[in-house]
Design brief:
Helix content is about 55%, strand content about 15%. It has about 350 residues and is of the alpha/beta class.
């Protein structure tokens, strides 16, 4: 049980790193919070997907590869620059400690780098415009990071140096082997709030209308990079370039932000953009055609459900209501004929209820 206080605000919390136990196995708050952020990000992106020309099924398919690989990327990034934490007293590497991610130790930039790589490959294979998908994914990243930072609060980590500001955070931690009370910058809170502001800002930009695919993607790197670079300078647990005083995430944040800002200025101020080139408008201009076959009088609920789903996927539909007394042979002939049409991308059939 950890005690975390905000003395200037008159608040004190007693937090445990374990949320509950499942069949005797401890379920940590860190993992629960990360999972909550992930679910919120997926739900939001799934709802917003049609605005970017992305199909919901593509989001789910992409996540099957992205989730495990991004966790691995975030962990590897952390281990590479904090390798001494995973050494035994004899100098050998403790691989068991390396896989215990519930104890903390996921570097966000490692996950971001892996996410970009996975998305590039996925979009190449599915023939989807990477920057359009990247625009949508930027919101997911901000939501996940905004919520996920509270996992650091529960683990009492990712805090800053000493401060006497009104919102200072009081914690107990070991200094030179001795448990001491200290009042520090709540940098986890700074970053969570910074991501919330970034999310609201980029949502407002999208509502006004994106000028080009990649605008939100670049906006994410510009906003997050500046904030992370500044906040990283306050932290006491930064990852360093091996034995140098250079903070990895601070440099990465400022460099990516500078590149993104330069590109945004050029693309917004000096280049004209045709709305027809937006991926969402390209998808609307060439929708798929799907045939819906259903028993007359039975398929109304099914039909509406399919039409709504297909509309989100930028598809047009043709409907074929089969009479109740239709001959099974004629039914199969119709379905076979529809499936033989080159202009139809798919034929969906609702089976007749059996009595």
């Amino acid at each position: 049980m950890n005690t975390v206080a905000f003395p200037g605000l008159g608040l004190e919390f007693h937090v445990s790193s374990i949320a509950f136990r499942l069949f005797g196995w401890p379920i940590h708050w860190y993992g629960v919070i990360i999972a909550a952020g992930f679910i919120l990000a997926v739900v939001y992106c799934s709802r917003r997907a049609p605005k970017f020309g992305i199909r919901q099924d593509d989001i789910l398919d992409m996540l099957l590869a992205a989730v495990p690989l991004c966790i691995i990327g975030a962990r590897l990034y952390y281990i590479i620059f904090y390798l001494d934490l995973y050494r035994r007293p004899d100098g050998s590497l403790d691989f068991g400690a390396m896989v215990r991610i519930w104890d903390g130790g996921l570097a966000i930039y490692g996950g971001v780098i892996m996410a970009v790589i996975v998305l590039l490959v996925f979009c190449k294979l599915r023939h989807i415009k990477f920057l359009a998908f990247g625009d949508l994914g930027a919101y997911g990243m901000l939501i996940g990071q905004m919520v996920g930072r509270w996992g650091n609060f529960v683990n009492v980590e990712a805090y800053g140096g000493p401060t006497d500001l009104p919102w200072r955070m009081g914690i107990y931690d070991y200094v030179d082997g001795t448990l001491q009370y200290m009042e520090v910058h709540p940098t986890f809170l700074y970053e969570s709030l910074w991501n919330l502001l970034g999310f609201l800002l980029l949502a407002w930009v999208a509502k006004r209308g994106r000028k080009f695919d990649g605008q939100i993607f670049l906006g994410y790197f510009a906003w997050y990079g500046v904030g992370r670079g500044i906040i990283e300078g306050l932290r006491t647990d930064s990852l360093y370039f091996f034995n140098t005083p250079i903070r990895v995430s601070q440099v990465f944040g400022f460099v990516t932000a500078a590149v993104a800002i330069v590109l945004l200025i050029y693309l917004l101020a000096f280049k004209k953009h045709d709305p027809a080139r937006l991926w969402v408008n390209q998808m609307k201009a060439r929708p798929r055609l799907v045939a819906l076959v259903y028993p007359e009088g039975e398929g109304s609920v099914w039909l509406e459900k399919q039409k709504k789903r297909l509309e989100r996927d930028f598809a047009r539909t043709e409907e074929y209501a089969l009479p109740k007394d239709a001959d099974p042979g004629e039914r199969q002939e119709l379905i076979a004929a529809l499936r033989g049409r080159e202009d139809l991308a798919e034929v969906l059939v609702k089976e007749e209820k059996t009595k």
